[in-house]
């Protein structure tokens, strides 16, 4: 009997995942990760979540363990979260959490339990496949692979397909593959996603069928293992900021800000903070001049961009061509966009077929095949039109001084 380490968060998804795996004949061990311990100012309800996870384990009759990863979580997720905001970019801590904690630190911490697999309640599908290094296959085999979404039919090939592949879940509204692109692909042989073929309503029904105490529990919100909190106040507690000026693209100063690090691209500026005669039009952050502590705002239309450069690439299934087309998204639950990708060493130059709102440095761009296979992802580092906006404004100020 294969042994599975089921990550149990105290929510309905991981609860049902544990029940399904037990029904499928696995020896299931439940694990709760103790991540963020909280502070008096920013408490974390981890005791309540752990209690719920333990209650589910008791109903299912499976062993339950709490693994204290608070130190590594602080170092790998919280400290990086603040450091990146301090640098003026907008990170995604959930992606850091999956990569560094759920599928790395936890697996290392539970080695003594000799588990064969690790499972989570993510809405994603994982398909285990044969090695496909070329198209030198019989027609019948190719048709079979295409039917199973295992062989790509775009105008490019994958460098290797000898490891499992992640695909979007059947429930497109709940699909969480966006958050999984950073996971080390060598871990894919050890991962199970028991909810990949289910919709959220189906999961709720199963929770009631199994008489799980989390059946009617609301979905969690907020940062991974931190819970709901006011992000701006959370940032202000550790990110050093200084008041600065807010400008239109023509160089007109219209307001002051409390710290450029606290704003993100596409964010609407509060009308009450703007020095404007008459009705204040909707104004949005279109660029950040970190060096000079300036915020540049404009119309919503000005937040759209078409090109970006990304780094810190992680391929799950890497296209072999330097130039290729695929689908991509820059935020969770955004619709897929057609992109042209140019691999240039450790960087990717990406151009969207149509303009996309609020391209943001620090956020992830995640790539998919037309069949919904997660190809990989990268961190957005540079948005050319935003850099040009900052340069033009800087040049305007220099001319004014002269």
From TrEMBL:
Pfam family, one: tRNA_Me_trans
Entry protein name: tRNA-specific 2-thiouridylase MnmA
GO molecular function: ATP binding; tRNA binding; tRNA-uridine 2-sulfurtransferase activity
Stretches assigned to the tRNA-specific 2-thiouridylase MnmA-like C-terminal domain: 307-380
Region (Interaction with tRNA): 174-176, 331-332
HAMAP family: tRNA_thiouridyl_MnmA
GO cellular component terms listed in the entry, alphabetical order: cytoplasm
Annotated CDD domains: MnmA_TRMU-like
Role: Catalyzes the 2-thiolation of uridine at the wobble position (U34) of tRNA, leading to the formation of s(2)U34.
Sequence similarity: Belongs to the MnmA/TRMU family.
Enzyme class: transferase
Claim: Cytoplasm is one of the keywords in the record: yes
Chain intervals for the UniProt region annotation (Interaction with target base in tRNA): 92-94
An individual GO BP term: tRNA wobble position uridine thiolation
Binding positions for ATP per the UniProt entry: 7-14, 33, 121
UniProt catalytic activity: S-sulfanyl-L-cysteinyl-[protein] + uridine(34) in tRNA + AH2 + ATP = 2-thiouridine(34) in tRNA + L-cysteinyl-[protein] + A + AMP + diphosphate + H(+)
Keyword terms, alphabetized: ATP-binding, Cytoplasm, Disulfide bond, Nucleotide-binding, RNA-binding, Transferase, tRNA processing, tRNA-binding
Residue numbers marked as site, Interaction with tRNA: 122, 363
Compartments in which it is found: Cytoplasm
Coiled coil spans: none
Gene: mnmA
Domain of life the protein comes from: Bacteria
EC number: 2.8.1.13
Catalytic residues (UniProt): 97 (nucleophile), 224 (cysteine persulfide intermediate)
Location of the tRNA-specific 2-thiouridylase MnmA-like central domain: 233-299
């Amino acid at each position: 009997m294969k042994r599975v380490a089921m990550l149990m968060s105290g929510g309905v998804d991981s609860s049902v995942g544990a029940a399904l795996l037990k029904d499928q004949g696995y020896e299931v061990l439940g694990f709760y990760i103790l991540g963020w311990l909280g502070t008096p100012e920013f408490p974390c309800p981890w005791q309540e979540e752990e209690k719920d996870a333990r209650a589910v384990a008791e109903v299912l009759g499976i062993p339950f363990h709490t693994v204290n990863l608070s130190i590594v979580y602080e170092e790998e997720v919280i400290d990086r979260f603040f450091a990146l905001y301090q640098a003026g970019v907008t990170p995604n801590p959930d992606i850091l959490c999956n990569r560094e904690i759920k599928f790395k630190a936890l697996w290392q911490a539970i080695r003594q339990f000799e588990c064969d697999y690790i499972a989570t309640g993510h809405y994603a599908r994982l398909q285990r496949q044969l090695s496909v290094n070329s198209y030198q296959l019989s027609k019948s085999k190719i048709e079979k692979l295409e039917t199973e979404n295992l062989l790509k039919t775009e105008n490019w090939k994958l460098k290797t397909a000898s490891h499992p592949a992640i695909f979007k879940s059947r429930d497109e509204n709940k699909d969480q593959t966006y958050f999984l692109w950073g996971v080390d692909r060598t871990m894919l042989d050890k991962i199970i996603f028991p909810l990949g073929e289910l919709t959220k309503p189906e999961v709720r029904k199963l929770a009631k069928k199994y008489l799980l105490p989390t059946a009617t529990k609301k979905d969690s919100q907020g940062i991974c293992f931190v819970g709901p909190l006011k992000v701006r106040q959370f940032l202000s507690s550790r990110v050093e900021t200084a008041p600065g000026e807010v400008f239109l693209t023509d160089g007109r100063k219209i307001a002051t800000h409390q710290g450029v690090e606290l704003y993100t691209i596409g964010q609407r500026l509060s009308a009450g903070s703007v020095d404007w005669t008459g009705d204040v039009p909707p104004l949005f952050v279109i660029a950040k001049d970190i060096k000079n502590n300036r915020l540049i705002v404009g119309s919503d239309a000005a937040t759209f961009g078409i090109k970006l450069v990304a780094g810190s690439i992680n391929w799950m299934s890497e296209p072999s061509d330097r130039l290729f087309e695929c689908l991509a998204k820059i935020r969770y639950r955004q619709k897929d966009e057609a992109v042209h990708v140019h691999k240039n060493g450790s960087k990717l130059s990406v151009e969207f077929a149509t303009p996309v709102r609020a391209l943001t440095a620090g956020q992830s761009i995640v790539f998919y095949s037309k069949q919904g296979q997660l190809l990989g992802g990268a961190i957005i580092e540079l948005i050319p039109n935003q850099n040009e906006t900052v340069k033009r404004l800087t040049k305007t100020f220099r001319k004014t001084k002269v």
